[in-house]
Amino acid sequence: MQVAEVERGRAAIAGIAQRRPKALGVALDVRGRDGARLRSGDDPRGAQLEGLAIAVGLDGDRDDAVLLLERALLCDPALDLGGLLAPLWQGQPAPYLVFADAHRALGVLAARGVSAPTRFGCATAASTLLGEGADRRRDHRPIDRSVRELLGRELPDGLLTVSSTSVRLACEAEALLELLRAMTPMLRDRGLARVYSFECSLIPAVVAMEAVGIRVDAPRFERIASGWVRERAELDVDAEVEGVVERAARLDKLISTYRYWARDYVGQDQRMRCRLHPLAADSGRFSCSEPNLQQVPAEHTAPGLRACFVAAPEHKLIIADYAQIELRVAAHLAPCEAMRAVFRAGRDPHRATAANLAGKPEHEIDSHERKLAKAVNFGFLFGMGARRFAQYARDSYGLELDEREAAAAREAFFRTFPGIAAWHRRIGAMSRAGEREDITVVTAMGRRRTFLAGHFSFNTALNIPVQGTAAEGFKIAMLKLEPALAQIGGRGVLVVHDEYIAEVPAAQAERGREIVEQVMIAAMAELVDSVPIVVEAEIADHWG
DNA sequence: TAAGTGCCGGAC
DNA sequence: AAACGTCCGGCACTTA
Prior knowledge:
The protein is of the alpha+beta class. Helices cover 50% and strands 13% of the residues. The protein has 20 helices and 15 strands.
């Protein structure tokens, strides 16, 4: 990463402009308590701002610059950011202005009462909320399209070139302001003003969670990783022993992905900090990167790894997740009275399907039958076919089915839950219409996903409203948990789709558990009120 | 040599 | 008629 003080930075901008840079990052030179430059893994609290720094260059450099900017915003509440950035974003000589992850900038800056740069946030939020879909490696396309639509012209070459995970924007300041002036009514017209405003209000909680990080037992993490490396070295893949090649492949995956996490991501305070992206995913779920803590292998894949994520001394973790949330949300949205009734009666949906499949009452269902039914419920909910189900049941549940049995299971599922069947038929009709017209599906909060004519996806159209509504309920919970936990000295440390992890003082553990459970239930119930919501929350010393 | 893309496998 | 989805990141390969 190239970092320079202001004057050098400006000179660098002028120089690099002639090379038509892909991006230009604005960062702040931030020093930790020990005076050393703050690195991405470090605790940003208590750090000092030494001066404005500018990072120029191509992709990777820019990411570092933005990371520093974000951390800086967390460090110094009194920071006059508007004043610092003004020469860059209003005046010359900066030919380009970049706000990577502008939506985050919006939330943070708005919370500080900085008005002008906050407008950058609209474009990012809009491109996701407008539901045009994004490829993580080509996510500038929706923005390009929005820009063309709103401005009625192309932007000059080189001004809109982005390629990274969260939606990022590189644009000429004048054109950007013009874009944003047009964007706000567009959000309003499409009924997105509320969800957009909600997403903005969520940002401080997201940023707080990133800043806090999660405590990691780094030596233990390293020992586990070393164990993989040793085991891999001892494997002889040429020996043609059953399963060795597969084991080697799994170990290679673990080693290449996780071996250096402890070294690269654990800060001096022994906490690991990721980046959370509330508006990067079409579904409305969070995505996570650098590192992707939502992808840490579970116990059955890498024993003991999650247990390296621990509570701070004198603290406990509260680990809470929604029980069968996708089934519940689907029962609500479809709507499916049969499935709603199962949940309302406190019955087990897997047992209900098993009963229909085996042709006997629910209380006679054994564990094997229930296991099959679980695969059936999760598999067929979003439109899986019988053939693929047979494979899925084998790979994920160790069940052997032929195609005829898989088809019978599928029929039993739809017989058990006729409302789900009707919902699938309705989306099937959309599929046919989608050949020649654009189709939009929406979530409970009005988040959109549009399929352009000829690009409809049956399965995605089933999935997005369900997954998205669950994500929105989860986000409401996250918003409310921030102040609720603070009252007992606790805080959220990680979110993993339908799982919330908090850290609270040990003496407050039971109180914290109750708070998390109650708030999560109430939040989801705001969007999903036709079935009860169940949260399983436990007190633990470590994750996993 | 860096960037772009397909495939795969980890999570939920 | 049939169709499980949402992500991120590593590796292998092509392209310019």
